[in-house]
Amino acid sequence: MDERILRESLSAACHWLVDIAQVVGETPPEGVKLRHAHTHWRGAIMGEYSVKDRQWGFFCPVWHTGQAVKALVLAHRVLQEDWLLAGARAGAEFILGAQVSAADDPDAGLILAYEDDPAKVNTSAVLEALEGLLLLGDATGEARYSDAASAAARWVAARAYQGDGLFVDSYDPASRTFAPYRYGTRGRPLAEDAVLLQVATRSGDARLRAIFLEVCERLLRDEDPPGNWINYSPCDPVRGNLHPRHAYWWGRPLIDAWRATGDRRYLACALRCGEYYRQAQRRDG
Fold first, then answer.
1. Pick from 145, 248, 138, 237: which is nearest to 191 by CA?
2. What is the per-residue pLDDT across 103-126, written as a single tens digit (0 to 9) for each?
3. What is the pTM of this model?
């Protein structure tokens, strides 16, 4: 495909994120459905839109804003246009505004990534917000973005990790407790964006690297069917429902594990995840 067409498409997609989906004021536009316990909204990405009702809403704004920050920074590498970093900065400020920053707070470093429950934090959503901060720190030279990501990663490792490659989800900041067995299992093997490995590589934190590799080993043990993990929610082994999230969020980081260790078992599993998507693709693409 012509490079010019690809660049135009990339620019148009990012303009949609910044010009349409991103909140520019202190509060979202009138009529937008709010159900998460955030106290500020500037920079957040609206992620739910009903074409039928012409109604915007939010679903886990921290997670989706983090992914938008990542997209905008990566697009800036190609297009080299300042507005892309401006949009990424606005999104990052929303995320940093949702982080517990007081050093004497027991939850210092936690990012309040509310998702399914409007006042409870999902561990996976915290992790999914971090790579954009790391990349923005690299792009701007401002350490506060990567420092915030590192603090959040360490909170997850200290509070949510259960050992044996599993993290518990659904944290209640009010009671400082996790909901037990929220998904019917002891936890989930969250490898999201390989952020624990990324922070470990930047900081030399051997424990974060060890946890990431324990998660990867768990993924190898529990893979079922090839390229996915039906025994972990939001998949449903009783109904035989497979959710596509796992093949990406858990499959792609296995490439990072292979690069970090040279262990080709990780690469082989990542390739099976790619094959899962290839088999799931519709004939029209």
1. 248
2. 999 999 999 999 988 899 999 999
3. 0.94
